[in-house]
Amino acid sequence: METGTVKAGGEPLWTGLPPGLLRMRRMLLLVWLGLGTVVVALLPGLLAGPVWALFALLPLAGLAWGWVLLGRNWRSWRYAERADDLLISRGVLWREETVVPYGRMQLVEVTSGPVERHFGLASVQLHTAAAATDARIPGLHPAEAERLRDRLTELGKARSAGL
Q1: Residues 6+ apart with CB under 8 A from 159
Q2: Which residues contact 87 (CB under 8 A, 6 or more apart)?
Q3: CA 100 to CA 111: how far, in whole Å?
Q4: 146 vs 50, residue with greater confidence
Q5: pLDDT at 21 over 70
Q6: Which of 42, 51, 125, 147 has the fewest beta carbons closer than 10 A?
Q7: Contact, 138 vs 21, CB < 8 A?
Q8: How far does Cα 61 stand from its chain's mean position?
Q9: Residues 109-127: pLDDT tens digits?
Q10: Angle at CA 29, nearest 5°, toward 94 and 51?
């Protein structure tokens, strides 16, 4: 992607997150709430009687609700590389848009924990002089995360040299 790419009308060209991040988060939701469902069904069912095992419906309801919310949250994340800055937009109810000027970037990290590596994902963390403007883009393919890190580092050096 070229820096400064815009659509007709001056709107930046946004890039969404890959579906692997949604798969990873939904799998974690299934694992944790699945375990919760089993525990909530077995303990009351064995100790107080089978009617109390119906409390297992609560984690199942949480699973269904969480499944939908994770999809909405995943669709809300996007980023755009512009000529002078990087835009990161996220949020469903409270929309948050972060603008990180290339010249203000001090450090760009690519991280990938064990679960992210299992799903073939990495995150890009941007650090600036002001801690409040640090930004993160989660769940990218490792090649895209490395490309973005290299590009942002290159642009950051070029912009800060001009200050």
Answers
A1: 84, 101, 102, 103
A2: 12, 14, 79, 80, 97, 98, 99
A3: 19
A4: 146
A5: yes
A6: 51
A7: yes
A8: 24
A9: 999 999 999 999 999 999 8
A10: 115
Q: What is the pLDDT at residue 7?
A: 63
Report pTM. Answer: 0.81
For 12-79, give the secondary structure using H, E and C. ECCEECCHHHHHHHHHHHHHHHHHHHHHHHHHHHHHCCHHHHHHHHHHHHHHHHHHHHHHHHHHHCEE
Letter for the amino acid at 108?
V
Q: What is the DSSP letter of 6?
A: B
The 135-140 sheet, strands edge to edge? 105-111, 122-128, 135-140
Q: Exposed e or buried b for every residue in 12-31, given b needs 16+ CB within 10 A?
A: beebebbeebbbbbbeebee
Q: Are the CB atoms for 16 and 77 separated by under 8 Å?
A: yes
pLDDT for 1 beyond 50? no
The tokens describing 93, both together, are 């109810």
Length of the chain: 163
Kindly state the tokens that stand for 60: 């199942």
